[in-house]
Inverse folding.
């Protein structure tokens, strides 16, 4: 089944001519999660995205599905329990994408440190219990100062106490989105990228019943009709809600910008993902992650009011991260010219829901409330007097609430930091959240969608178990990932592809490898090896890849993590896409300029 420029044209005809049950605005991780569950439920579903899928926030994360161990500092047990359980669900439905990886958490004897060696062990034990990994190969442990420096000799030794090691998951954010989108398409959703919502349409009673949409490729404007419309536009949700002119729009978001920088591993070598306090006494924590021969680090967390389409890395962002990295790795002396690639993204934070994860905030930031604190103290006293059991103490800890949270938690909240609302004229908005929560957010939205379709349209929708709804490429046993991917590696090798290249294909495409290698019979493209030839052809024909930037930045990681290979692969990719998509000389030149600009921006040429 194709999912391509050609199928996009048919999708747009369907959007023009058919009434949908549900129209989704936004093709990031939130919209993708709603689309796959909606289509699987038998709901007649459409989705439009004004750019490429995942082009905004959903390809610009820290590229982890992390469990939020930091929340345990303030006894946010319920939050961590939700997060680690949901993390396991995501790994089950997309087993070829998130990968378990031990995270190193160095502990320094510094003012405002998140943990000391005693508290980090307590936090990690509780974390493992919540994650269900106690007694497995992924169980946490601590190491002393000497072993930390043996693992990472470049780390700052002054005031280093030791480290904790615990389980987290590395992720490929953009691929998680496209695999959800592809599965939604397979299940019958009508999906088109580069279609922008420019207005709402209303029925005789003033209820939202569709959109005015603009095809960004053909410059055509048309109407899409739907019983229900849901806004999942990430940082753009307020801008989309402003199109709903029949009701007063209320701003719900406070976007913040986060950036990440990439250097070659020869400049900063870490054996495993590492997570530490910035050391700048600002309450932030920094990730340092090895990936594909490179090391990337981030993130910043600053309020943002600029161009949502093109958030950029600024000099102040670079200065902050380099100061933090060179403080923790004093011998590396990373400078601007060492940066090979970068990315900047916006977090769609709910404005009344505290700060972001990266500042230790969120819905429950603030002091522990008086009632919760007194209950904990009383229970501990009862335990010491032998009138309460250990389980009572654990329950009292898990029921700790912050004063801020008790004032602001809303019944419509479907996961931490997210919001699900319905305007008085029917427009639904699902906003906030983070990648780890996307499936749960979508499930909350689907529950509401089912209720409205039943109540207002007398339409009964079947319920599905979205915890078992696997994405495209993920149709295999999540308990047997390594062996399954070895099998798909052999499938690719059977076409004459080297083991390293075949392994890369298996990790990128999972159970779709058999489809990918079917393109091998067409021979290789000029300037591309067989692996990249079939990857590109599959991506254009079956992943709605429309531009070289789509392919080299979001379907693959070339722009971010293979800077040294870009010069060789860039022109052959453009040439093959021009052939596949029938570009004339002018279009080819335009696409080349667009790619050059994206590469220059990622490489921070404007700062260098």
């Amino acid at each position: 089944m194709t999912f391509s420029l050609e199928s996009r044209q048919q999708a747009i005809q369907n959007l023009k001519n058919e009434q949908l049950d549900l129209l989704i605005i936004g093709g990031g991780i939130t919209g993708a999660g709603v689309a796959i569950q909606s289509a699987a439920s038998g709901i007649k579903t459409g989705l439009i995205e004004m750019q490429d899928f995942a082009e905004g926030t959903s390809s610009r994360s820290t590229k982890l599905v992390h469990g939020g161990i930091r929340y345990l500092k303030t006894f946010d047990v319920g939050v961590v329990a939700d997060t680690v359980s949901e993390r396991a669900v995501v790994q089950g439905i997309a087993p070829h994408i998130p990968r378990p990886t031990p995270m190193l958490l160095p502990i320094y004897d510094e003012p405002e440190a998140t943990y000391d060696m005693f508290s980090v062990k307590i936090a990690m034990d509780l974390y493992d219990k919540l994650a269900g990994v106690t007694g497995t190969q992924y169980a946490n442990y601590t190491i002393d100062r000497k072993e930390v420096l043996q693992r990472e000799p470049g780390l700052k030794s002054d005031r280093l106490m030791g480290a904790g090691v615990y389980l987290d998951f590395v992720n490929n954010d953009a691929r998680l989105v496209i695999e959800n989108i592809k599965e939604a398409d397979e299940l019958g959703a009508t999906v088109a990228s580069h279609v922008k919502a420019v207005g709402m349409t209303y029925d005789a009673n003033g209820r939202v019943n569709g959109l005015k949409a603009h095809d960004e490729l053909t410059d055509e404007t048309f109407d899409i009709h739907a019983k229900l419309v849901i806004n999942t536009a990430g940082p753009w949700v307020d801008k989309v809600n402003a199109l709903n002119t029949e009701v007063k729009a209320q701003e719900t978001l406070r976007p913040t910008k986060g950036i990440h920088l990439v250097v070659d591993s020869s400049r900063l070598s870490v054996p495993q993902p590492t997570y530490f306090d910035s050391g700048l006494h600002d309450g932030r924590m920094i990730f340092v992650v090895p990936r594909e021969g490179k090391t990337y680090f981030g993130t910043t967390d600053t309020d943002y009011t600029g161009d949502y389409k093109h958030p950029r890395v600024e000099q102040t962002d670079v200065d902050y991260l380099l100061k933090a990295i060179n403080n923790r790795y004093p011998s590396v002396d990373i400078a601007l010219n060492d940066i090979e690639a970068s990315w900047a993204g916006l977090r769609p934070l709910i404005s009344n829901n505290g700060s972001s994860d990266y500042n230790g905030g969120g819905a429950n930031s603030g002091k522990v409330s008086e009632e919760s604190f007194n209950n904990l103290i009383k229970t501990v006293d009862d335990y010491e007097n032998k009138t309460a059991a250990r389980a009572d103490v654990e329950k009292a800890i898990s029921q700790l609430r912050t004063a801020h949270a008790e004032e602001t938690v809303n019944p419509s909240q479907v996961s931490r930091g997210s919001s699900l609302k319905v305007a008085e004229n029917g427009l639904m908005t699902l906003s906030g959240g983070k990648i780890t929560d996307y499936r749960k957010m979508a499930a909350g939205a689907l529950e509401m969608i089912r209720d409205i379709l039943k109540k207002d349209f007398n339409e009964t929708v079947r319920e599905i178990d979205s915890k078992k709804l696997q994405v495209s490429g993920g149709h295999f046993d999540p308990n047997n990932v390594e062996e399954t991917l070895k099998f798909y590696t052999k499938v690719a090798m059977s076409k004459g592809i080297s083991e390293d290249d075949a392994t890369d294909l298996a990790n990128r495409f999972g159970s779709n490898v058999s489809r990918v290698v079917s393109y091998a019979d067409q021979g290789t493209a000029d300037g591309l090896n067989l692996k990249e030839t079939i990857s590109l052809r599959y991506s254009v024909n079956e992943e709605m890849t429309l531009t070289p930037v789509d392919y080299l930045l979001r379907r693959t990681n070339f722009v971010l993590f293979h800077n040294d290979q870009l010069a060789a692969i860039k022109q052959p990719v453009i040439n093959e896409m021009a052939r596949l998509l029938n570009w004339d000389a002018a279009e080819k030149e335009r696409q080349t300029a667009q790619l050059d600009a994206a590469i220059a921006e990622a490489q921070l040429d404007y700062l260098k």
